[in-house]
Hints:
The chain is α+β, with helices and mostly antiparallel strands. It contains 8 helices and 8 strands.
Amino acid sequence: MSDYTERLWPPPLYWLAATGVVGTVGWVLAVSTPTLVVVVGTAVAAVLAVAGLVAVGSVEVGVRGGELVAGRAHVPLSMCGAVRALDASAARRARGVEADARAHLVIRPYVPCCVRADIDDPADPTPYWLVSARRPELVAAAAATGVGGPRPAEYGTMSAMARKKKSESPIQDAQAAGAQPSSGAGSKQLWKVYSKGATILSGVLTIQLAQKLWRAATRKEPPNSPEHPEIDVREAIMWALLSGAVAELVKVAVSRKTAQYWVRSTGNLPPDMDPIEK
């Protein structure tokens, strides 16, 4: 059984448009607000723009491990009927005049082609999945090697509607994907290495990003020694606020990615994290 997955990253035009939006926000703030507001507002706009494009484009679609996946939704190929690649024209009709309101859709407007997978499960009211894909023929070919296999017993009493919901826990996802739970002193020492590496990476990224944002907003070099008495106090305060905000954002982003990688690799939370009570 062959696997094929791809991510639906936005094309360069979307990134260019996001850059234009951020630039517009910065220009509007520059002509009407103090420099501090310009720097912070532009930085926030940039972070939100990048986060939005990454959230939209990082979704993974295709065939993996005997399942059709679309983001965090998945369904066994044994529960699928025909899996067909749709060209741009057929995909446009499937999204429009031929659309069924009950279908499960993972659509990106900048990807013209789609894959349609019929759902062969009497317990599921969803008639089919319609998923954007840049190479739909490869997704369909990968699915063809797995369709028709034995119906897994663990899915016998569970509808595809229930299976395609987001997992309650990333730890369960990792263990289901084959990660072996680990614990003990070795794991703690390894996590310390991971954590130290994440801290170093955060520091490097913080410096680079903060400096770039400062130069873009002020057209000047950032102050090397904000505490120096010859540095204007407003400039020192603005640099402290900007670098502090960037440091916290980068720390959270890098730490989350490191913890997620640990969970996917070991099937456990990092040693210094406790489960969140729900």
